[in-house]
Design a protein that fits this description.
- About 40% of the residues lie in helices and about 15% in strands.
- With about 350 residues, it is α/β, with parallel strands linked by helices.
- The protein has two domains: about 130 residues, Rossmann fold (3-Layer(aba) Sandwich); about 190 residues, 3-Layer(aba) Sandwich (Rossmann fold).
- A six-stranded parallel beta sheet has the order 8-7-6-9-10-11, with helices on both faces. Strands 1-2-4-3-5 form a five-stranded mixed beta sheet, sandwiched between helices.
- Helix 5 crosses helix 6 and helix 10 runs antiparallel to helix 11.
- The protein binds phenylalanine.
- Phenylalanine binds next to strand 3, strand 5 and helix 10.
């Protein structure tokens, strides 16, 4: 199974390690270094099989290549997965992260990492003890800190551009936005939306988080069928599929999760039911713009704000192209990215 996946992949390199002390599989998937060193987060998660973890890392890595190209960053795409038998903390977590850091350091800068699902700024500080190729360390340790609020800000700009495309005005006053997942991106996004006057509905696994943000709670199993203007998936990917798309009751899908489409055909399914889809790898690029921009390209706060707002402009252009060429927004976004990879 692992052999088949690696053989069929169109990426450049897969590094595999079994971490004996924690029983974890480590997969570093470097998809492309065509535009520069490959950047991508480190995800910690449990999977049924190691091959599921590898497949996830591979898909996430290709999405990073598209993301970097779509927002014109001089980086390639990669992703790492720490497939743990159960979530670890304390000394076991530290040990795993340090051994992982040695592995990343041994790649000598072809791969630069940052946080992703279940990894934090504190984890990046640990990795940074042994490895220089890490973004989003804490400010005390010379990093740019948590990218979540910047990813959220990019998504906010993307939602405004999408609302303007569908409703003719980008005012969020009274617009109903359903945020699925109030983690490091969904949380700050919900706050920005509330401030902008949107009516925020939220679904979250942690009790009390939605209420404290002033959002109306939607039970997890009701997210897909809930009527809203904008559905913002900000948890795990794959929520848009053959089974869920026909049940959606929104006009726009625009959120931060990576790999929202379960399969490519889901982009057509969304278009066919008249839902505008903001391609995930474009709308969620704010974290990368902030951390790579601040740490690698030495951008100022003002330059970063301009680039975050640019996510709205890029989506607007993608929507116009999709309309003009009769293609899905996903296809238009991929064409934009590929034109910068050629
Ligand atoms: N989770 C981030 C993403 O998917 C990964 C990342 C953050 C990579 C910051 C580099 C720097 O875009």
């Amino acid at each position: 199974m692992l052999e088949d996946l690696i053989r069929a992949w169109d990426g450049e390199e897969v590094v595999v390690r079994f971490d004996e002390p924690t029983g974890s599989w480590i997969f570093v998937c470097i998809h492309s270094t065509a535009r520069g060193p490959a950047g991508g987060g480190t995800r910690m998660k449990t999977y049924a099989e190691p091959s599921d973890a590898l497949a996830d890392a591979m898909r996430l890595a290709s999405a990073m290549t598209l993301k970097m190209a779509a927002v014109d960053m001089p980086f390639g795409g990669a992703k790492a997965v720490l497939a743990v038998p159960e979530l670890v903390d304390g000394d076991r977590r530290r040990g795993l992260l340090l051994r992982y850091a040695d592995l990343v350091a041994s790649l000598r800068g072809t791969f630069h990492t940052g946080p992703d699902v279940n990894t934090t700024v504190a984890d990046m500080d640990v990795i940074g003890e042994r490895c220089p190729y890490v973004f989003c360390r804490s400010e005390e340790h010379g990093g740019s800190g948590n990218p979540g609020p910047y990813t959220a800000r990019g998504v906010f700009h993307g939602i405004r551009a999408s609302v303007r495309h569908v409703f003719g005005t980008d005012s969020l006053e009274g617009r109903v936005v359903l945020v699925q997942g109030l983690g490091s991106v969904g949380g700050p996004l919900a706050e920005e939306l509330v401030t902008a006057g949107a009516q925020v509905l939220a679904s979250d696994l942690v009790p009390g988080r939605a209420e404290s943000l002033g959002a109306e709670v939607v039970p997890a199993e009701e997210v897909i069928g809930t009527e809203c203007d904008v559905y913002a998936p900000c948890a795990l990917g794959g929520t848009l599929n053959a089974e869920t798309v026909p049940r959606l009751r929104c006009r726009i899908v625009a959120g931060s999760a990576n790999n929202q489409l379960a399969e490519p055909a889901d982009a057509e399914r969304l278009r066919d039911v008249g839902i505008l889809y903001a391609p995930d790898f474009v709308i969620n690029a704010g974290g990368v713009l902030n951390s790579l921009g601040a740490e690698h390209l030495r951008w100022t706060r003002e330059q970063i704000e301009v680039r975050l707002a640019g996510i709205g402009a890029t989506l607007w252009e993608i929507y116009s192209r999709a309309n003009a060429e009769g293609i899905t927004t996903e296809e238009a976004a991929e064409r934009l990215a590929r034109s910068r990879l050629a």
